[in-house]
Specification:
By secondary structure, the chain is mainly beta. The protein has one domain: Jelly Rolls, CATH 2.60.120. Helices cover 9% and strands 44% of the residues. The strands form two sheets. It has a five-stranded antiparallel β-sheet with strand order 1-2-9-4-7, with no helix packed on it. A four-stranded antiparallel β-sheet has the order 3-8-5-6, with no helix packed on it. The longest helix has 12 residues, at 113-124. It is globular and about 55 Å long.
Length: 129
Amino acid sequence: MIDTGQLNIHSYKNLHSRAIQTVALYTVDELRAELVVLPPGAVVQEHSHARLHELFDVVEGEGTFQVGERSFVGGPGKCVLVTAGLRHSIHNHSDAPWVLRITYQEQLNPWDVGRLISRALRRKFKIRF
């Protein structure tokens, strides 16, 4: 049995699937995370996110990261930060599933301060609207 706040990532892997599997792990304010399982040969084409930073943590397997002009292999324990606006892609070049935890952090700008203060006050004083 898994307690609240814990997740057995192996229970989400379907080793027979040829599709990329994504499981939402959590969302808290400007932070959210997903578990992503890329089957052998799977590719996430080059793209960018205007206002999201991405942190890739390799849980198991091996694949290739293309970040900007750089390309490198990521195996278990490898962490890769992709800042907002930077073009990137990922490719599982191996014969086994590549399991990644991807954490997304919204890029905050000075104009976001009003929204953040409002949320903090609502939480502090338990205001709902």
